[in-house]
Design goal:
It is an enzyme of class 3 (hydrolase). The chain is of the alpha/beta class and about 325 residues long. An eight-stranded parallel barrel has the order 8-9-10-11-12-13-14-15. A four-stranded mixed beta sheet has the order 4-1-6-5, with helices on both faces. The chain has two domains: about 120 residues, Nucleoside Triphosphate Pyrophosphohydrolase (Alpha-Beta Complex), CATH 3.90.79.10; about 180 residues, Aldolase class I (TIM Barrel, Alpha-Beta Barrel). About 25% of the residues lie in helices and about 25% in strands. Bound molecules: 8-OXO-guanosine-5'-triphosphate and magnesium ion. The site of 8-OXO-guanosine-5'-triphosphate (8GT) has 16 residues, from β1, β4 and β6.
């Protein structure tokens, strides 16, 4: 089968809207929307190919770009590697230079457009932030203060962990947090059941993930419009997460951490190899801080998840 390496871009404007283009009706996956881009040519670097394609297709010059998600997909007629970068700065006015319709859409509108089958994780990656805060075990007032501080500092995805609370106290705290901050951030909650509040997403432990994948076929336990994520510790669990249809995963522990001193860390190289074979946005967790974001992106991750590394940061 033909194998091709495609560079594509999630391009953002100053209001964080994303540019999508419509593929010509007679092209492969014709009539569907796409992230602009095209095939890497022999001798080109990934960034060079991206710059050339976006210049040809949209008439823009890329100033700043970084890897967002890199995945492989088998269509019946070809095998593609979709190597998607986020473009945060460019010059020129983006337009359909090859006559294709283009549109700036919000993250919120993105899921309502029809994309090729390979694009589902890219749409999730485009909607997710690069930092994922997990709350530490501390008193409720401290949790609330810390969340407010984090949101003010630009954090928009938060997992309420609180292993010190029993289920009643945990649910009461979740309710309080959603009431206060539900409009300003996305909250991922834990538990045996999907969170009752439909604004919240559900984060599965690796044990829950394994149990849900035991009886085939695994079925996604939450509707598509709510976020579903899972904790993974190895390649097998990442594969299970894909099969279950989660939106994103957290892979840990990357480095040694105080919260799990007994676990043996994956290290950057092994994590990178695992992400090469994964079709999900994945946050790396374990001993990381905001300073590790570039390394995480280069390893193929969505970004970093952290408790201490993102809590009470200036
Ligand atoms: N650019 C782009 N291609 C995608 C996306 N999703 C997806 O499955 N593809 C597939 O990846 C391949 C990209 O090729 P392309 O048609 O953009 O390549 P190109 O710009 O070099 O075009 P050309 O071959 O006409 O010169 C196609 O098979 C297309 O169906 C996407 O979001 N953006
Ligand atoms: Mg193209």
């Amino acid at each position: 089968m033909r194998r091709i390496h495609v560079m594509a871009a999630v391009i953002r404007d100053a209001e964080r809207r994303i540019l999508i283009a419509k593929r010509p009706d007679d092209a492969h996956q014709g009539g569907l929307w796409e992230f602009p881009g095209g095939k890497l040519e022999p001798g080109e670097s990934r960034l060079e190919a991206l710059q050339r394609e976006l210049h040809e297709e949209l008439g823009i010059t890329v100033q700043q770009a970084r890897p967002l998600i890199d995945l492989q997909h088998n269509y019946p007629d070809k095998h593609i590697r979709l190597d998607v970068w986020e473009v945060s700065e460019f010059t020129g006015t983006a337009h359909g230079a090859e006559g294709q319709p283009v549109r700036w859409v919000t993250e919120h509108q993105l899921p309502s457009y029809a994309f090729p089958a390979a694009n589902q994780p890219i749409v999730a990656a485009a909607r997710l932030p690069q930092r994922y805060l997990i709350t530490p075990d501390c008193a409720a007032t401290e949790v609330l203060q810390g969340i407010e501080h984090a949101i003010d500092a630009g954090i928009s995805l938060i997992q309420l962990r609180q292993t010190q609370l029993d289920i009643q106290d945990y649910e009461a705290l979740c309710e309080q947090v959603l009431q206060r901050y539900g409009a300003r951030a996305t909250f991922m909650l834990k538990g045996d059941q999907p969170p009752a509040d439909r604004r919240a997403g559900w984060h599965l432990t690796s044990r829950q993930l394994r149990a849900m994948c035991e009886q085939p076929p695994p079925t996604r336990p939450l509707p598509a419009e709510r976020w579903l994520s899972a904790s993974c510790h190895d390649a097998e669990e990442l594969q299970m997460a894909e099969r279950l249809g989660v939106d994103f995963a957290v892979l840990s522990p990357l480095l040694p951490t105080a919260s799990h001193p007994e676990a043996s860390p994956l290290g950057w190289e092994q994590a990178h190899a695992m992400l090469n074979n994964c079709r999900l946005p994945v946050y790396l967790l374990g001993g990381l801080t905001g300073d590790d974001l570039a390394a995480a992106h280069n390893a193929g991750a969505q970004g970093i998840a952290a408790i201490r590394g993102l809590w009470n940061q200036p």
